[in-house]
Amino acid sequence: MGELSIYNTLTKKKMVFHPLEPAKVKMYVCGPTVYGLLHVGNFRGAIFFNLVRNWLEAQGMQVTYVYNYTDVDDKIIAKAQSENLSSQVISERYIAEFEKDFKRLGLRKHEHNPRVTEFIPQIINFISELVKKEKAYVVDGEVFYDLATFPSYGKLSGKKLDELEAGHRVVVDQKKKGPADFVLWKPSKPGEPSWDSPWGKGRPGWHIECSAMIYEILGPTIDIHGGGIDLIFPHHENEIAQSEGRTGVPYCQCWMHNNFINMNDEKMSKSLGNIVTARKFMDDYNPEILKYLILSVYYRAQVSFNDEKITQTIAGLARIYSALRDAEKVACAAGPDNAKLAAPELVKAMQVADGKIAEALNDDFNTVEMTAQIFEIVRLFNAMTPVKKAKDVHVQASARIFLEWVRRHGQLMSLFGENPAEFLRGLDRILLLKKGIDETTVDNLVIQRQLARSKKDFQKSDEIRQQLSAMEITILDQPDGSTSWEVKKT
User: Which domain holds residue 347?
Assistant: First the structure.
């Protein structure tokens, strides 16, 4: 199977991954700042790192996965003030909303979901240690990290401290020793959340929060730290400075960063008005479509959500779910439950695909190759024309192992677990809506065609079929005389 290699942002190359403690992985991924519904880009990390954890566990590792909530922040405070509510009410509201979306995606829960406000004493203690070590300094109740004490600053992002300082404007915060020094603790303004500290009432800076939570839950050094590429600088760079400044040991051995999602080939931004929440996307389409869109692209590459890509995704999912639907029908037919009767060529192909999928995932989680292998097995199964040979015990056995195989790999991706018939009907509804066609119109035309056929009015029947075909509706006449329909998906 080979060893797992992961691209490490810190070293700018792939590394063979071995956890610090044998068979135990400490993994932390930066979670959301909770002041509104999260957009689809925010969920790329949640969906991808869910796969990472699943694959590590499939390799026999015990993973402790920490995914935090930032529940005190300027944006939360602004939202609370605009609604005349407390910051806690706002943050708890949107944590609950995030968890609704997360559950709808069918992603696995994390071992820990710490809130920043649950760790204020630990954050204060962390900052106190930095002050004591003269890595941080206090000015008028505000605590700053002294970057001059951390010569390796910039090793993650590649940015140089002297260049950063030169890039600052002439007018800088006069309280700072260096223009790039960043805040660890700041005094709270009237009406803002605040906590008592050795430096007066205030609240933590953003960067110190993750360092403190990681230190308390996972310890001084972790195996994997994940997040979006937008967090590399300054957030993750500052985490390294704080944590290594306190402990004197490496903070994280492997840094992983997922790329952005673009909407219609443009970066999502409020100024462009193209931000789409995950909830709206799932309402308009389906959670499976969101997950598949994200996992069908290499995590370090940009992925663009546009009509063409969504259409391709619907077609791809339809192929897989159609095969699953057929396999369920055939597998449920009477016959011996004996895997040894399955078609040898399918069994062998699955074994080959298993090896290629393992090789792909061990090569920095190459989900593109993984999905390609799933399609190859779907193609082979479809070539067996399973529905037409439903009474063949060899086809029945093949259908059973096909179902098990697809669902086993689907579990890694949190995909392909829906009821196939219901999912496919849902895709039909999505496509009809995009075409502006009412479902009852299609149903009525199908009924009229059945009536025409019963009266042997084949001219009328053919006219209705052509009318439906013009709407890209495919008629499926069943052997038992019933008729079903579906929207063309390719």
Answer: 278-422
Residue 430 located in a structural domain: no
Give the pTM: 0.95
Q: In the 3-class helix/strand/coil scheme, how is 271-339 assigned residue by residue?
A: CCCCCCEHHHHHHHCCHHHHHHHHHCCCCCCCEEECHHHHHHHHHHHHHHHHHHHHHHHHHCCCCCCCH
Tally the domains of the chain. 3
Q: In the predicted model, is pLDDT for residue 10 greater than 50?
A: yes
Phi, psi of 67 (to 5 degrees): -135, 110
Residue 46, domain member (yes or no): yes
Element holding 372 (H helix, E strand): helix 367-383
Q: Report the distance separating Cα 365 and Cα 52, nearest Å.
A: 7
Residue 168 is predicted with a pLDDT of 55
Cα separation values, 409 from 52, 140, 330, 348, Å: 13, 57, 21, 16
- What is the side-by-side strand order in the sheet with 136-139? 136-139, 142-145, 182-187, 202-204
Cα separation, 324 vs 410, whole angstroms = 12
Which residue in this structure is represented by tokens 């992603």? 107
Mean pLDDT, the chain, whole residue set: 94
On whether residue 172 sits in a domain, the answer given is yes
Bridging pattern class, strands 483-487 and 222-228: unpaired
224 plus 301 within the same structural domain: no
Sequence-separated (6 or more) residues with CB below 8 Å from residue 178: 146, 147, 148, 165
Count Cβ atoms below 10 Å from residue 59 Cβ, excluding itself: 17
Residue 428, domain member (yes or no)? no
Q: Which candidate, 183, 203, 239, places its Cα nearest to that of 77?
A: 203
The token pair at 199 is 């430096």
Nearest to 5 by CA among 364, 447, 369, 465: 364
Residue 200 three-state SS:
coil
In the 8-state DSSP scheme, what is residue 363?
B
Q: Using DSSP, how many helices (H) and how many strands (E) does the chain show?
A: 16, 15
**Structure token pair of residue 9:** 């942002």
Domain boundary among 369, 394, 422: 422
- pLDDT score recorded for residue 170: 42
